[in-house]
Design goal:
The structure is a single chain. With 225 residues, the protein is mostly helical. Among the domains are: 30 residues; 117 residues, Cytochrome c-like domain (Cytochrome Bc1 Complex, Chain D, domain 2, Orthogonal Bundle). It contains 9 helices and 2 strands; from the N terminus they run H-H-E-E-H-H-H-H-H-H-H. Strand 1 and strand 2 form a beta hairpin. The longest helix is centred in the first third of the chain and has 30 residues. The radius of gyration is 36 Å and the shape is elongated.
């Protein structure tokens, strides 16, 4: 007679298979329930921009601003400062005095936004041009040397030709400072001795004299360019 020691009844294969299927089904249902709840949190019921809304008389979800209102910080009541124009004409002067710190800020902003196309000297030979993109304008042509500061500001704001406008990236004051630095670049590449105040002309020879005293070759001066 077979001994019953250590014997246990075997689990039915059918019951084991059914149990596994039930477990899988429960897991899938739980995952779907959890995912559904999370998706509801991501996609909160709301009207998207420009979506239709039958609850409004005009059928639009986006509401128009009340007449005569302006968003905080968007009041542009100074035509001169914000457009670069006075009575519809490009301003011939800057709307505020340009200090040394302003010029440094203009140089920094010019370097960030303008040098890729126009180059460090403003000669239109920026890095992207050297890489094969369209030739940028040089500031050292008569048309731009004679242009009013307001015109330079307008081009920076709205673009010209293939150049995009930078009104979204650069605030108005910085656009004026970039224009001021462009004017400084134009002067630096087209300056004459007579442009230097008489009291300061002696300083033009100071670098050459100091190098000569030290027995070093003199650096090139503006007059030699």
């Amino acid at each position: 007679m077979r001994s019953c020691r250590g014997w246990a009844p075997r689990e039915s294969t059918t019951l084991r298979t059914d149990g596994r299927l039930l477990t899988c089904a429960l897991l899938v249902a739980s995952a779907a329930l959890v995912a559904g709840c999370r998706q509801d949190m991501h996609d909160t019921p709301r009207y998207e921009t420009f979506e239709a809304n039958p609850n409004m008389a005009d059928g639009r979800a986006s509401r128009a601003y009340p007449a005569g209102t302006v968003a905080r910080g968007q009041l542009r009541d100074d035509e001169y400062f914000f457009t670069g124009k006075v009575n519809g004409e490009f301003a011939a002067e800057f709307p505020f005095a340009i200090a040394a710190a302003d010029m440094a800020r203009g140089q920094e902003r010019y370097t960030a936004y303008c040098t890729p196309c126009h180059g460090q000297l403003g000669d239109g030979k920026g890095m992207v041009v050297q890489r094969g993109l369209r030739q940028a304008a040089t500031y050292h042509q008569d048309r731009l040397r004679d242009a009013a500061p307001g015109y330079l500001y307008d081009v920076i704001s709205n673009g010209f030709g293939a150049m995009q406008g930078y009104a979204e990236q650069v605030p108005p004051r910085d656009r004026w400072l970039i224009a001021a630095y462009v004017r400084a670049l134009q002067l630096s590449q087209n300056a004459k001795v007579d442009d230097v105040p008489a009291a300061d002309r002696g300083k033009l020879d100071a670098p050459a004299a100091s190098h000569a005293a030290a027995g070093e070759p003199a650096p090139a001066t503006r007059a030699e360019h």
